[in-house]
Amino acid sequence: MESFKLYINGEFTEGSACFNSLNPATAQPWAVIAEAREPEVDAAVQAAARAFQSGPWPAMTASGRGKLLLRLADLITRDADRLARLETLDTGKIIRETRSQIAYVAEYYRFYAGLADKMDGRTLSIDKADMETWTRREPVGVVAAIVPWNSQLFLSAVKLGPALAAGCTVVVKAAETAPAPLLALAELFHEAGFPAGVCNFITGFAAACGTPLTQHKQVNHIAFTGGPATAQHIVRNSAENLARTSLELGGKSPFIVFEDADLESAANAQVAAIFAASGQSCVAGSRLLVAESVKAAFIQKLVEKVAPIVIGCPQQQETQFGPLCTERQKTFIQQTVERSLQQGAQLVTGHYKIEGDGYYYPPTILDCSDSPAADSVMQELFGPVLSVISFRDEAEAIALANNTEYGLAAGVFTQNLTSAHRITRQLRCGVVWLNTYRAVSPLAPFGGHGLSGSGREGGVDAALEYTTTKTVWLRTSDEPIDDPFVMR
Q1: Which of 5, 90, 200, 475 is most exposed by smallest CB count within 10 Å?
Q2: Considering the domain 2-249+448-472, what is its CATH architecture?
Q3: Coil, strand, or helix at residue 318?
């Protein structure tokens, strides 16, 4: 089996213990992972704090930080095939997606490399004649970046890129489920020449690793992607250090198809929205809201597109649909679908047993038009289950779309540009895709509200999350201060 170590203060090291990582396609162990507990967590945070306060990193120019990020991007491009193989082995994501995604990950680091020397303050037109006043953008300090197993190289890039461009130092906690790709990424940070302590990579379990990290008094910002329940624990933990938090959480995103939509294009996008990555995406379009007049025709198109999906070994290029990452997730989805059927949902396709090893669950569609409060409609399943509800008019579509505690993303398919603008304004979410779905770019901010979190990743907005504003006042008069007991 392969083995992966922690990376702390510029050195690869063993942890307090180790554990096996399983290949979801076979349910068999394939790698031995070093486990961080409180001693390793403290060592990583202390290293990041030292690197932030002294040494080459705080002395480095912003353009120097950008050059390091560019070097890292080139190394990721060079090793993309290896990183893709590791991510597929450890998570079960199909190789055709991991290869494509990792190639694009490098572009995020290139974007933030270019932004490093452009996070400027500004001069204020202050209302005092004898004052010059300006602001500076300065790094917030030590960042704890907590990354989930799905799309982890991408979800770490949207944290590491802006944090490092801003001048912060980072402790990355990879999920204990499938951490190998992120620990392998540490090798490229080392090769790129980042000073010791600037980037530290650890993994471990919640009580022994996650809690001491988020409670650590030297952590200034916590950037987390994951579920709302874990985020609530993190927010409570952050009371110990009053760290800032940016939280990119789950979603129950509506995919709205109006009767004037291009149904063929919308059907392709819906397949991508819910069955790509086996539905294991925070932006999965898991609630199909479709106009009553085209519901039957649209569901038929979906069934025709789902039937030939190639389910198989994720390492094979022809595979389109791989396993779920864990047995626990598979069991949760099976049970939720069963409850939803008992609550009145109708099975359109899927929900059958896939023979063989691994954590496979098939693409599944449930018609929930007569059971709009079924569990599959209201709960995030993080899997390949689509719940369908019909609507009669625009007002009902918007009401159904907003009937959720989440607020991450939405898809809207219509040929009417006027209604598209009107609907976009009324949807309570952070991202709206019009006549497309699941598109991302390093130039565009991403995030939600409600149970979908707070803060933004991507774009200039993300970089500003990792800075704090310092205001500088310069008195330009040579005259003595008139009255020292009166505020200027």
Answers
A1: 475
A2: 3-Layer(aba) Sandwich (3.40)
A3: coil
Q: How far is CA 239 from CA 219, 220, 223, 243, 343, in A?
A: 11, 11, 15, 7, 40
What is the rounded distance in angstroms from the CA atom of residue 246 to the CA atom of residue 224? 6
Give the span between the Cα atoms of 422 and 319, in whole angstroms.
Answer: 40
What's the pLDDT at 482?
84
The pLDDT of residue 269 is: 97
Q: Which parts of the chain register pLDDT below 50?
A: none
pLDDT at 1: 87
CB 72 within 8 Å of CB 109: yes
Tell me the catalytic residues. 248
Amino acid 467: pLDDT: 96
In this prediction, residue 356 carries a pLDDT of 87
Alpha-carbon gap, residue 1 to 279, rounded angstroms: 29
> What pLDDT shows up at residue 364?
98
CA atoms within 13 A on the CB side of 431: 32
Residues 6+ apart with CB under 8 A from 194: 68, 72, 164
Burial of 283 (0-12, 13-18, 19+ CB in 10 A): buried
pLDDT at 427: 98
Spans of all domains in the chain: 2-249+448-472, 254-434
Q: Could you give phi then psi for residue 482, rounded to 5 degrees? A: -65, -60
Place of tokens 């047993």: 353
Whole-prediction pTM: 0.95
